[in-house]
Write a structure and sequence with these properties.
Layout (H helix, E strand, L loop, with lengths): L2 E6 L5 H11 L4 E6 L10 E2 L4 E8 L7 H7 L2 E2 L3 E9 L7 H10 L3 E10 L15 H20 L25 E2 L8 H5 L5 E2 L2 E5 L9 H5 L5 E2 L3 H14 L7 E3 L1
Parallel strand pairs: 1-2, 1-4, 3-5, 4-6, 6-7
Antiparallel strand pairs: 7-12, 8-11, 9-10
Helix pairs in contact: 1-4
The structure holds flavin mononucleotide.
The site of flavin mononucleotide (FMN) has 24 residues, from α1 and β6.
Length: 256
């Protein structure tokens, strides 16, 4: 069996839960790289042919989040087997899984499996609330078991993954940032967990517009719900998501 490594970016924690469940069936984790925080995205990581790496990212606008693309350049493989996982908020994962696989196949990794899971939408708990749930976790554990069998049998074939070229066009979003209400108790959880260090550690009301990626980490992690978007465009987007993707339950898709 290979040395098991996980590499994931997960501002609101759903991707992390999925990756942890998949890896549970594979044995002890040799190294876990949680690259959500900036301080964890500085070092170069190199993997070998005795490693297995499970990569996980959330889907942002149908793509791999822009923020981590630069860091992914610092990760290198050498005939390294890899599993690619995207987690999306019940709308669609579009080309994100294909993009993630393409990025690492060009850097010395060989795909053995891929999957798209569903996580509670970062912008509203009314879409895919509490997912990954018990059923999703069962599917993730089962996926882990299938990966283990595949490695042991060494039966690796090319996989056809959903996605199109050219990839879905990226939207250049407006520079909207969360507001902070007076219920803020200055605990600092928002700043400590911000993936881009956009929140001032000495003044939690101050958020750098150029750094904020609108990942909703500060909003979801605030113990007093003091952070929120107070913006018509975001309200409209939430309504669109709830109206169109609030009811139907999408299921994880496994490519193995
Ligand atoms: C900026 C941004 C863009 C997103 N775009 C999509 C999308 O295109 N499709 C979708 O289904 N969910 C989308 N989501 C929802 C996330 O993919 C989903 O909530 C995911 O579970 C978040 O992962 P995390 O908990 O690991 O941060 C988006 C979320 C954010 C913050």
């Amino acid at each position: 069996m290979k040395k098991i490594n996980t590499v994931y970016f997960s501002p609101t924690g759903t991707t992390k839960r999925v990756i942890k469940s998949i890896s549970m069936e594979l044995g002890n984790i040799d190294k876990e790289y949680d690259i959500t925080l900036e301080k964890n995205r500085r070092d170069l990581i190199e993997f070998n042919d005795d490693d297995l790496v499970i990569f996980g990212v959330p889907v942002y606008s149908g793509r791999v989040p822009d923020l981590i693309l630069e860091y992914f350049n610092k990760i290198k493989g050498y005939y390294t087997k890899a599993v690619f996982v995207v987690v999306y908020g019940n709308r669609d994962y579009d080309d994100a899984l294909l993009e993630l696989k393409d990025i690492f196949e060009s850097k010395g990794f060989e795909t053995i499996a891929s999957a798209a899971f569903i996580g509670e939408h970062s912008y509203t708990e009314k879409v895919a609330e509490n997912r990954p749930d018990e059923e999703d976790i069962k599917t993730a554990l089962n996926f882990g078991a299938l990966i283990k069998d595949k490695i042991i049998s060494d039966d690796i074939k090319p996989l056809k993954i959903k996605g199109n070229y050219p990839y879905r066009e990226k939207k250049t979003g407006d520079q909207i940032i969360p507001e902070t209400k007076d219920s803020c108790i200055k605990c600092g959880i928002c700043a400590e967990n911000c993936p881009t260090e956009a929140i001032d550690f000495n003044d939690y009301y101050s958020i750098n517009k150029d750094k904020c990626i609108r990942c909703c980490s500060c909003i979801k992690k605030c113990p007093t719900n003091a952070k929120n978007f107070n913006d018509d465009k975001i309200d409209k987007m939430k309504k669109y998501l709830i109206d169109n993707f609030g009811e139907e339950r999408k299921e994880p898709v496994l490519f193995i």
